[in-house]
Amino acid sequence: MMDLVMKNLVMKDLTIAVTGINSIDNPGPGTGVARSLREADSSPRIVGLAYDATEPGLYMDWLFDRRYMMPYPSSEPEVLIERLQQIQQQFGLDCVIPNFDVELPLYIQCAKELESIGIRTYLPTKAQFALRNKAKLAEVAPSFGLTTPKTITVTSVKELQEATAELGFPVMVKGPYYKAYRALSQTEAASRFHQLAAEWGFPILVQEIAHGIELNLVGVGDGKGSHLGLVAIKKMGVTELGKIWSGLTIHHPALINAAEAFLRESQWRGAFELECIADRDGTIYLIEINPRFPAWTYFATGVGINLPERLVQAAFGLPMVDLSQPPLTAYEPGKLFMRYTYEMVLDSAPLQTLVTQGER
Question: In this structure, which of 13, 235, 291, 335 has its CB flanked by the most CB atoms within 10 Å?
Fold first, then answer.
């Protein structure tokens, strides 16, 4: 009976929830994911999930059919499951696409129980998620044919001083989940150390700076050593936090090969992003493995590779879009991505509704 239901299911019958809709100076991936789903061949109903009533995605009526406030991901699994069940009973909910590193461990832990009540995910396993730990990249990168800049983990000011003495300035000072800052002096490094520790906890990473072209790659692993699509880009303009503001699509065989090796070795399931730097001699340094869609996900959709749509299709066993083209020719190189800011002028009633009722 279930096979018959799945056979007759199409995207437009589904309700998909998306987190990470804080489209601010450090934008979350959620609005790009939602925009991609909205432009799928058969657009599903889309629910926006937020942790703060001021997240801009909550007010983007053209993207989301319904919006809900969520308990913080530091809560117990039962709290998350109960809230998602409430949404399911009230509006319908078939799938959740979480887009924050910090919430993924909770969703991974709850994945089987969520599926048992009819809410699907398409996520890496706990072991796969551990591979992207910033402090362990130096151990795993060689198996993908990559190297990493020298990195030292620190948990005290004394260790920070020892790390900067060893690496020399300038260095990158990075949080365990988010944010990375260039530090030119010990005073600046200490300031960033305290800032990141207060916001994200320990360990803090101190990393030598690799020089070259910044490359990013987004894809969706199929959990069997292959993928549902890959798109590589070169960063052109970035913010103070290193977030892409403009970029170009590229065909970079060495980066594609590294991504395919990563997929073979890890058997990764779900969305991922590789952040790399290619130096003049061709060495590719792995900077980060992000275990979810990046904020620039819609760029891939805009050049013809709708990865959120493919992820949902895979989660439900739906017929896939044509994947017969090889990844190097499935999209055109030289397509430009340009981010911009946009102001919405609204009545305050939606904000009051979200604060008092937790939904709109």
Answer: 291
